[in-house]
Design a protein that fits this description.
Strand order of the largest sheet of chain B: 1-2
Structural class of chain A: mainly alpha
Shape of chain B: globular
Radius of gyration of chain A: 18 Å
Number of helices of chain B: 11
Helix content of chain A: over 70%
Radius of gyration of chain B: 19 Å
Largest sheet of chain A: none
Number of helices of chain A: 10
Number of strands of chain A: 0
Structural class of chain B: mainly alpha
Largest sheet of chain B: 2 strands, antiparallel
Order of helices and strands of chain A: HHHHHHHHHH
Strand content of chain A: under 5%
Oligomer: heterodimer
Chain lengths: ~200, ~250
């Protein structure tokens, strides 16, 4: 029971109060770049969720049974980025060969994810926070879901922005950032929600 | 072609005309995340600049040895090594900065500015030019971070450069530790140091730099497609993500 409660609290925190994009500023490039249409935004986010969970599942044992065991923690950054890069390539090849429909839906976004700081960020944060394997997995899932939520909401906002009459100086990127700021304000409203639910 | 340019030009282009943050819109994540205080912005800028110079030098020196098919992983290994070195140095000598930057310090590895310069410049130019390019881009990055952090810290906390002593004390015995601004520190607009303020200040700064650029007849800063993306060469999207947008929506 205590365990479930903790997992839920971690999940909700990762999705709402500590949203990766809107509160932690991780994964801003795809957030601004691939959020013009709801459909592409959700495709990209699903690929991110997939890679985040997979990367956590692979890097956690590597860290625990290889790096920590042999006192090599200082190699974390370099090992993790290589593992993520290799993993993404591998997943792309496997999907392309055996699961064509899934590849068409997610695979096209995979190469863009290697250098997405959200993926490396979630892996590093899991280890920094000393999470257990289960908690790490839930945190990664939550971070991915939070990314999906922010991306899809923001894509909706941007589709509306297209038809607006925007002052010339603010057209393009500036108005997108200001819209992101307003979406981020709405997420501030969740502050304290998780604490009050789970005490 | 770029090698004909003087080194001075290589340096100054990173400051204004091709400022990585305000003109090329690269490295947005660290820009937004660490610009809550001027001292951590300077720390981040310095760390990224050192990594950028070192990785540019090594990648440029190895540009004829690295096979083009595996160049991106090779660049990532070089960059990650330097980031690890910087991480260990910061942890040992400026622990306060390490805790202020947190996870964003190791995340310099995936800062698009560094991989972008490796791919766009260091892989094609001589060692000295690449080092100067790295220095220029790094200083431009630091300057943009400094500007943004100044706005956010002054309005959001009513202080300026508080905590800089942790960084300065490594080099000298100064006791300077920033200013407190009388009226603002009693009534700070906290929203500016929170996440929404980051997006807002960044948006306004891009708008201002666009206005200045247009007056000089230059192009507006926009999120660019594949030309600025370091992953373009390995990307299977063949063409811009924009085209993919259309294709998917149809």
């Amino acid at each position: 029971m205590e365990m479930t409660k903790e997992l839920f609290s971690v999940l909700l925190t990762a999705i709402l109060t500590q949203n990766f994009v809107l509160a932690k500023f991780l994964g801003i490039c795809p957030f601004l770049g691939v959020s013009k249409k709801v459909k592409t935004a959700s495709g990209m986010s699903l690929a991110v969720i997939f890679v985040m969970v997979l990367a956590t599942a692979v890097t956690f044992p590597i860290n625990k049974y290889l790096l920590v065991k042999f006192n090599l923690e200082y190699l974390q950054t370099i090992v993790f980025i290589l593992v993520i890069a290799a993993l993404v390539q591998l997943v792309e090849i496997v999907l392309k060969k055996y699961m064509k429909s899934l590849y068409n839906a997610l695979g096209i976004y995979l190469p863009l994810i290697t250098t997405n700081c959200a993926v490396l960020g979630v892996v590093l944060l899991n280890i920094e926070s000393n999470y257990s394997f289960a908690t790490s997995m839930v945190n990664s899932l939550g971070a991915g879901l939070g990314f999906l939520l922010a991306m899809v909401m923001f894509a909706g906002v941007r589709e509306r922005l297209e038809s607006c009459d925007i002052p010339k100086a603010l057209q393009g990127l500036p108005i997108t950032l200001i819209a992101a700021s307003l979406v981020s304000v709405s997420f501030l409203g969740f502050t304290g929600v998780v604490e009050s639910i789970f005490g | 072609m770029a090698e004909k340019k003087s080194l001075g030009k290589e340096f100054t282009k990173g400051l204004v005309a091709e400022n990585p943050v305000l003109r090329l819109v690269l490295g947005t994540c660290p820009t937004l995340a660490v610009s809550t205080s001027v001292s951590s912005a300077i720390g981040m800028g310095l760390a990224a600049t050192i990594v950028l110079i070192c990785s540019n030098i090594v990648i440029s020196a190895l540009r004829k040895v690295i096979p083009s098919k595996v160049r991106i992983p090779a660049y990532i290994v070089v960059i990650a090594s330097f980031v690890t070195i910087i991480q260990l140095i910061v942890k040992a000598f400026v622990p306060a900065l390490d805790s202020a930057l947190g996870v964003y310090l190791p995340l310099i590895v995936v800062n698009c500015i560094i991989l972008g310069r490796a791919e766009a410049f260091a892989s094609k130019n001589a060692v000295l030019a690449s080092a100067v390019d790295g220095l220029g881009m790094g200083v431009g990055f630091t300057a943009a971070l400094f500007l943004m952090a100044t706005v956010r810290e002054v309005l959001g906390a009513g202080t300026f450069m508080v905590g800089i002593n942790d960084l300065l004390s490594v080099f000298s015995d100064t006791t300077f530790n920033g200013f407190t601004i009388p009226f603002l520190s009693e009534n700070p607009m906290i929203i500016f140091v929170l996440a929404p303020g980051g997006f807002f200040v960044f948006g306004i700064m891009i708008a201002l730099s666009n206005m200045l650029a247009e007056k000089k007849g230059k192009k507006r800063a926009e999120l660019r497609g594949c030309e600025a993306c370091p992953m373009a060469s390995t990307c299977s999207m063949n063409g811009s993500c924009e085209e993919k947008d259309k294709e998917v929506s149809e």
